[in-house]
Recover the amino acids of this structure.
């Protein structure tokens, strides 16, 4: 099975200059906790998560009315997979990056979809296998996330 078969297609995306409140509304409307940040060509440049907003805006007492995505988005090493990646490859990337959601991109970096741990859990047959994936993703690490 390939990533394209289990991903949520055409996810909501935002730009670095978008308002944080607008992105929070996107998360609410789309029932998601990660929004890819894209440039004018729809190429991924980062991600913003619900945790990014809480830890980098709210917990820092920043004004939500004037905060933008670029103020709290995660950049640098982005964990992504291609649409033809196997589910095992997706799991390996999620475990390596310790991420619970991973964007699916084309060869040019354009966002095609998102895969969450819930999508993975629905595909795995064995409860022990599901538990192992969640354990590996949740293992404490010293990898910087910003």
């Amino acid at each position: 099975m390939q990533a394209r078969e289990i991903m949520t297609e055409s996810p909501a995306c935002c730009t670095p200059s978008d308002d944080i409140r607008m992105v929070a509304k996107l998360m609410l409307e789309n029932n998601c906790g990660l929004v890819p940040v894209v440039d004018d060509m729809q190429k991924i440049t980062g991600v913003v998560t619900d945790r990014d907003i809480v830890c980098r805006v709210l917990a820092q007492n920043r004004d939500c009315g004037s905060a933008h995505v670029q103020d709290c988005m995660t950049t640098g090493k982005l964990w992504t997979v291609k649409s033809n990646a196997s589910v095992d490859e997706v799991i390996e990337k999620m475990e390596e990056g310790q991420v619970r959601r991973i964007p699916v991109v084309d060869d040019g970096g354009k966002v095609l979809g998102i895969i969450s741990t819930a999508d993975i859990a629905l595909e795995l047959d064995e409860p022990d296998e599901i538990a192992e994936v969640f354990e590996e993703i949740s293992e404490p690490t010293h990898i910087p996330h910003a």
Remarks:
- The helical segments are 3-6, 20-30, 50-58, 87-97, 117-123, 127-138.
- The mean pLDDT is 89.
- The beta strands are 8-9, 34-38, 44-49, 81-82, 101-105, 111-116.
